[in-house]
Amino acid sequence: MRSRLERRHASPIGSLVGHEGEADCVAFSPDGTRIATGGIDTTVRTWDAQTFEQLLVLRGHENYVKDVVFSPDGTLLASASGDRTVRLWDALPLHQRRAMGRE
Description:
This protein is mainly β.
């Protein structure tokens, strides 16, 4: 028997389309407005959590991305890869950096 929560949320509310191949990890920003994903295509991507629009494609890893996490203030994104590196990224799209004076 399914729980009430499973029945209520059994259908997807949207999809994040953009990775070439599987997306292996996902994280929500602390404020819940963005989603980060990492995949076998070696990219880290950020998405608008309301519209599911792709905001950033971050390239630099040489192997699959196995974990992503936002900093507590949501301005940085860390990614860990099968290439044995951890990279730190500016997690804000250009228009948000300008609004914060971080261009």
